[in-house]
Each structure stands twice: as structure tokens, then as C-alpha cells.
Amino acid sequence: MTDWATKTWFVTGASTGFGRAFVETALEGGGRVIATARDTGALAYLEGAGDRALALRLDVTRQDEIDAAVAAASDFGGFDVLVNNAGYGFLGGVEEAGVEEIEAQFAVNFFGALHVTRAALPVLRERGEAFILNISSIAGLRSFPGAAFYSATKFALEGMSEGLAPEVAKFGIKVMIVEPGYFRTDFQGRSIGMTANAHPAYPELVEARSRVREGDGKQPGDPKRGVAAIIRAMGSEAPPMRLPLGADGSQIAHAATQARLAEIEKWQAVSADTLFVDRA
Questions:
Q1: Catalytic positions, please?
Q2: Residues in Cβ contact with 164 at an 8 Å cutoff, skipping those fewer than 6 apart
């Protein structure tokens, strides 16, 4: 089985959190990394990695920067693993959020990952064996009040990933959707935007947003152990299409899936009662 930690990784959003954990784990495992971030100053932690690391500026909403980063990565020797990790959270009710806020969320979380993937595929096809890790969220399986648009971006990412996987399988490229629960990164404290359009009809959403920072630093998941679990799954004989991450993530995924299945079964007879009837 392939030891993916020894391969070359291209990681978006590598300045902190899961992105940094991927980079550090790959370097510790003997691999090489192309680490990208909008602010390359945040990649200063790579200074001791020598020629095994390449730090690049990349705003995933800019096609010119995507193309330049992939070209630089090719000059570096290419890569075996693409990690679409760049993204941010957004809290705002369906009637609250502004169009620009919604479009900005999709531009990063969905279209950013899509455009990076499309640019990277020619490089990955050349490898003969490669992996795409799309970092979703447990919110990609179940949406929550006040976070509908964040969930929508992750649902879209998961739908794209499901369609992509069989398309690229013939090239030896595998696709995995990672669905983390609560992990102790700076996501909750720094990487969640909030709507500027609070609506008086939804005071409960306003109150929930006021408390969102309280859990920062108390999340149960360790991102380094999360990355180790992902790499373990990557190296298995039959890697999963979806990997809920964390005990809480697994519990939420199980409950959401069971609820869907129960509802499908409850309404199965009504759903099936749709055939043409001979009216002659």
C-alpha cells in the first residue's frame, strides 16, 4: 500500500489549522510540500524545510494565481496529493444574508476548490497514482439554522467530488471528501464571517452568532491526529469516498444518514405511486 506521507503535497489554505497540519505531517513523514496561502508571511514556519518545501501565494478566487501556482508546482517536480483546504465559514440566515456575502462564500469554498482542481488535474494524471482531498465539513451532510449558505457550499463541493471520482478513476486518481466535526484550529475563532444584515424576525440567529466564539480553543479534535487518520484511510485497500472526522463528526453523520433513510422508508409507498396508469 502507498505511504502517502512520503509523497508530494499541494495544500491550499496552508497557513493555519488543517492546512498547516497537512504540511507539517507530510514533512515529518519524509514528503515534500507546496504550501499556499493568501499571505505567504504566514508560511514562515517552513523556513527550516529547505528544498523540500515551496511556499506560494494563492488566492483561490483568482485564476491567474491558480495557474501560476500550479505552474510553479510543476517546476518543483509536480505533486501527488491535492488538498483543497482553503475556505471559511459564514453565518447568516437565508433571509438575512446579502447576495454579495453569499457569492463570496461560494467563490472561495466551492468555485475556489473547483478551479484549483481543474488546473491540477493535468499534473495529477501524469502521476499514474494520485489523490484529491476535498475538505468539506460535517455541515456538508447536514445543514444547520443560520449556516445554510456555508452548508450549501459544502453540499456543492461534495456533489462535485462524487461526480469527479468515477471520471478520474481510470487515471489512478482517487477522491476523498473529508467531513470534520469540531477540531481545535483557529477556524471558529478567526475564519467565520457573519452577515452584516441581522434581521429582527430572527433574534435566535443573532443570539447564536454572538456566542460562536465561546467554544474556540475547547474543540475536542486534534488536527494533527485528524490528518494522521486521513492518511491512514488514504493508504487503505479501499479508501472511503466520505470520511467523517472526529467522534462528534461520526455521530452527526450517522444520525443525519439514519434520519434520511428513515424518512425515505416512511414515504416509500407514496414516492413509488407515480407510474402511468392505463386509462383505456
A1: 136, 150, 154
A2: 117, 132, 175
Burial class (CB in 10 A: 0-12, 13-18, 19+), 146: buried
Q: Which helix (H) or strand (E) covers residue 127, if one does? A: helix 113-127
Q: Name residue, grid cell 430572527.
A: 202
The rounded distance, in Å, linking the Cα atoms of 197 and 189 is 20
Amino acid at 76: F
**Cell numbers 507546496: residue:** 34
∠ Cα 199 204 208 (to 5°): 105
pTM of the model: 0.93
Alpha carbons 138 and 178: distance in angstroms, whole number: 9
* C-alpha span between 198 and 92 (Å, rounded): 8
At residue 223, the pLDDT reads: 87
Q: What is the pLDDT of residues 126-143, one digit of tens each?
A: 999 999 999 999 889 999
| Contact predicate 154/111, CB 8 Å | no
Which domains does the chain possess?
Answer: 4-249 (3.40.50.720)
